[in-house]
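Predict fold of TPR repeat; 266 aa.
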Amino acid sequence: MGTAMRSVAWGLAIALWPIAVWAENPEDLQRLLTTRQCERCDLQDSGLVLARLSGARLTGSNLQRANLSGADLSGADLRQTDLRGASLQRANLAGANLTGARLDGVDLREAWLTEAILTPQQLALAHIQGAQGLDVTALPFERYQAWGIEAIQAGRFERAISYFDLALQRNPKSASTYLSRAIAYQGLGRSEQAIADAQAAEQLYKSQQNPEGEKRSQELRTTIVAAQERVASSGSNGGNGGGSAALAVLTGIVQGVLPFLLGFPF
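Predicted 3D structure, encoded as tokens:
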């Protein structure tokens, strides 16, 4: 093989091989990469970005703070592993067995978890926003509600609505979720849906004898209606001042509603 061909081959090998930059125990790391069999291994702080570890046996191994972002761990045996603080963002964990694994602080954002074996309790302290394949019943209502509020604060209204939809599947009588989703709908300019949700929240707060929540919901609903009317009036007069003023008022109401939602039990 010529020099040029060898360079190309080495380049491809480097590009396709997982990025394993360091490990507490290099021998264990090499064993994992060559055999995919590494039970009770010391792999903490390992760099295994994009590692191809489908079906790997890692029972009882220490993977604290390991970087497994984008790794393929589909069907892997991860029973009793210690994954505290590890990054598994966008990793494929479909069908993986995580029975007894410690997942405190693990980053599972946008990971694929279809048919993965684990319990809701294991996910209590994990970061799982955007994870795919999770059954809605596997997570508590409060997680979805909190993520929805965070999405509103970040201006990601579509994502907020998807979280609130999931929250309402868990707790269909949550007034705070309807009120939160009303804000997200209005952020997308979907005023009719925002009004409907604000009205639903108002009625639920009333039935729950929560006058503050009822008041906040009513204020939001009436302000959205007023904004619609002023925008329509401004449009018929060839201007946009009325709409801008109404939207400014709406912004003030929303700024008042969010602190209420953040400080009130869901």
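The radius of gyration is 25 Å.
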